[in-house]
Amino acid sequence: xxxxxxxxxxxxxxxxxxxxxxxxxxxxxxxxxxxxxxxxxxxxxxxxxxxxxxxxxxxxxxxxxxxxxxxxxxxxxxxxxxxxxxxxxxxxxxxxxxxxxxxxxxxxxxxxxxxxxxxxxxxxxxxxxxxxxxxxxxxxxxxxxxxxxxxxxxxxxxxxxxxxxxxxxxxxxxxxxxxxxxxxxxxxxxxxxxxxxxxxxxxxxxxxxxxxxxxxxxxxxxxxxxxxxxxxxxxxxxxxxxxxxxxxxxxxxxxxxxxxxxxxxxxxxxxxxxxxxxxxxxxxxxxxxxxxxxxxxxxxxxxxxxxxxxxxxxxxxxxxxxxxxxxxxxxxxxxxxxxxxxxxxxxxxxxxxxxxxxxxxxxxxxxxxxxxxxxxxxxxxxxxxxxxxxxxxxxxxxxxxxxxxxxxxxxxxxxxxxxxxxxxxxxxxxxxxxxxxxxxxxxxxxxxxxxxxxxxxxxxxxxxxxxxxxxxxxxxxxxxxxxxxxxxxxxxxxxxxxxxxxxxxxxxxxxxxxxxxxxxxxxx
Length: 524
What we know:
six-stranded mixed sheet
């Protein structure tokens, strides 16, 4: 459905406060690693739930009441999410845990959930379903649909919460809603991330982080060529496995994420016209590294409520990335990641930030932008507990992040599909030309020259534009509505499927009817 046809009516706005205030009027400082996150910077997560099929009478009003009650009770141990951020005399922020509360909005959409345009989320998810967080640390919006479905969207302040912690909180809400005990409780002890005295760090940190005073976002003279857009896609499990196989060698097996990052880096490089280099950064969670070998600290760090992230990156020549095999690129990804997956790296980063306070620190890959060539940061939500965010009416049919973080650097966030079958849901905030390069790689089978395999790497973009039918015995059949490609040039891509040929042209994936073939299971 066209985004303009979708209307969302706001029914009620209220502030949900802590049921039993804990540590009221308590001040919580940011850690040095929190100071590595830009302010202000918010990210959102949304979950799509089909109409409940269980025997309970789950009306829209009933689901809203369950959500608010669960939120109110979960805020007791997660009290910092009901706080607000206040700067001190030096300009550094602290969290004032004063039970300010969480903004909660309930709304209603005039369409059925299956007609929600997920492929182009800016005009639907971003504008109408994701709440704008004006105050506080968290905002929630629950939107009902004509079919009885529901979308629950949350916007978090990234200076307090990362994806791991957002998942912990949402699972706790779901556990309360189903009268289950908490599986994990947060720890707010900032002393675990105190700097050493005297501070000491490897000089290589200067290559990864810079004081924010050195960040000077430029005005792009060609904004149309430097336009970022957002997409959401689904990558099938067997495709991920095949990609990992192609990125590995007899001497070294690469992880799924390393292999996926290598492919993204190659495609991004191919989209760069008249550029010299391309940068890739990968978000690394340091909780495991900082507690390595200490069982007690492992338990504390696993529930630590704050950012423990680093973004190592590397720069490669465009020609190298295009011409070298996927396995070579995956090895380069593995190489720069290994340096950040140590306890010393995070201890050094904590000290590096301390040495530059009160000036805030910033990952260099973000601050450098894309003047020299494309720059991309990939996060890892592989362990995001999407299947556990069940408030009593069933698991979500679909869910994704939504994080247009600004600046001149792309961002990609893969998380598991709620189906639990190994598929990935991938959110992409990238340059328009990079997204077009990905789509062209599918349509023209350009992925075949990125890997040494019999079949192309196939992506399925969710709703409208590109639809993929995966054929394990041969080339995949790709069906395009041609929304952004000239129909005279690209209408559909043919492939021999089974014992015959099929020609399909479709405006929407749910209108496709194919004998003996199944559409990729996207969401509903």
